[in-house]
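Final report, Chapter 2: Outcomes

The project's central promise was a pipeline that accepts a single protein chain and returns its three-dimensional structure in a standardized token representation, suitable for archiving and comparison. That pipeline is now operational. To close this chapter, we reproduce one record exactly as it appears in the project archive, with the input sequence first and the structure output second.
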Amino acid sequence: MTVDARDTTTGAALPVASVLHADAETRAPAFFGPRIVALAALANLLSSAVTFGAFGNFIEPVSTAFGVPRSTIGFGASFTVLALGVAAPFVGRWLDQGRARSMMATGAAVTGIGLILLSRAEQLWQASVAFIGFVCLGAAVFGAVPSMALTTNWYARRRGLALGLTVAGGTLATFLAPVSAQALIDAYGWRTAAGAFGVWTLLVAVPLFALFVIGRPEEVDQRPDGDPPDAPRAGASEAAAQVGESRSLASNPAPGLEGMRETGELARDPRLWLLAFGFGLVMTSPIVLMGLLVEFGRDLGFSAQQSAVFFGAMVPFSLFGKVVIGGLADVAPLKPSIVMIVLVNMLVWLIFFFEPSYPVFLATGALYGLGIGGAAPVHGVATARCFGRANFGRANGIGAMAAIPLLAGASALSHLLEGATGSYATGFLVQIGLLLTGGLLLAFVRFPSQAESA
């Protein structure tokens, strides 16, 4: 087969290569959404790894290095929650202003530098400043809130599935971070381990975010879900779903920003607070569980290593829950999924209350993974449906800050009750009550349908 292409002006034959090049230029580029989800998952994995994922591995060696009790270093987890929560509203505002790429690259750079500074700290206050002031604040700027906003901007009809894949990065961190951190600590010491995490962040995450993050598909003349350019914009339909509830910031908003609302108006919307406190109470489960699981397992007669296998049983089912329940959120009403999440988590704490045998203990890990796995993507879909992608960053950021007292308070209360009663049983019942309260709050939220919001 031959190609005989000619210049329309002179009639001269054109080289085949130039014809193919011209054809390639007219061909629309591939949809960037999958790449964005991969970057968002990486951001979740890394931010989780350097904050909570490997935190427990460093408690013993760091406390020994600075000559302080382990409990002193353990308080760093509470300050981590505080730092992430305080930064969230500011991060959300910057995201809605279209600063995703510069934010995430800068946040990763700050985190990487902080880890290197931590590895060189000679006094406890220096280590504290490096971890809280650099590592945690940097992670807030590129981690959970930015990654979920990024995915929300790129997907509308398949948003739940995309968010499930995004937050799966954090789940993988609960397994990969402790294993890799402990291997480095055992072989080279905690300082080298912290420095290695920092160098990896600087060399891998920073350039990836700086080169490939795109805040909204409209920035590259694409549309959410890879729809053709002439398709109705998701932002426009989301704005239409909120007629009578929202006010546009401008008469002619930029593409992808249709329906943007003033921050004060968002804060006056009761749905924001119902979602914040409802899902905040649900998410006390993983915070409380991570703090007491190993010690509870020891009380049941299991070794620390045996107790930690709980998380090994949890991870695959948590990943399954994120993808499946997140995908269902795209095609089914949200409230049945929320009911399932709440009831399964309540069942986990009820099983713990009755002091299970080791096989039941491990089976509970799988059950817990399935129940908690779907919480984050469903939360993201719920927030996007209520407020639209133009307001997602600020709505999610304000909600994250509002949930901080619940998360920190539930963790502290569980330890106080154990100290006062000598048992975790009362704390388990309190946790069931918190989950029930969270579910009831979420029952009052009216969620727009998928057709209305996407």
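Archive annotation: The CA atoms of residues 95 and 146 lie 7 Å apart.
This record, like all others produced under the grant, will remain available to the consortium after the project formally closes.
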